[in-house]
Amino acid sequence: AIAVSTADRQEIVPISQQQNRLRELLKQNAKGFRAALGQTMALERFARTVVTLAESNTDLYKCDPVSLLLSCFRIAQLGLSPEPALGQAWLIPRKGKAEFQLGYKGALQLVYRSPLVPAVRYGVVREGERFEFIDGKNFRLVHVPGIEGWPENQGKTVAAWCIIDLRSGGAIPRVMYLPEILRHKGRG
To answer: Distance (Å, rounded) from C-alpha 131 to C-alpha 113?
Structure first.
């Protein structure tokens, strides 16, 4: 049992009761979830995944139920899975609220749904590897990874890069150097 905040007092609620409350909340909103999920995932599987997440991270039970429900709807509307092994979307408990966080694999999933994008290339630049980036209309990005590869080369990260190839023949480059990566990380 864990403490769960109710409207006017703290009460001890067994986890099985919390699971039932969460299942009931999902069940009460089944019609909306079915519409949001469409053909991407069966509602029963989605609900089981959410309950399993809450079982493995009981702080989700402590979150405001409306925030948890809205975060689940956001994941469903994007046609992603909250399954941690897939890394598409995350339910994160923060300051009593459940927050949706898009995973990089979820971002890739969304990009690949676009008929404009045939490929995405990306990499992490480690200390000692050759890397050159010149921005502009005719950008140039050269990354020569070390021959030992990952995970053997776990040297200090210098930068991360991504190139989104477009069907039109163009490309969109993005490079983030370590200070910018750390600023984003610091924001949660």
So the answer is: 30
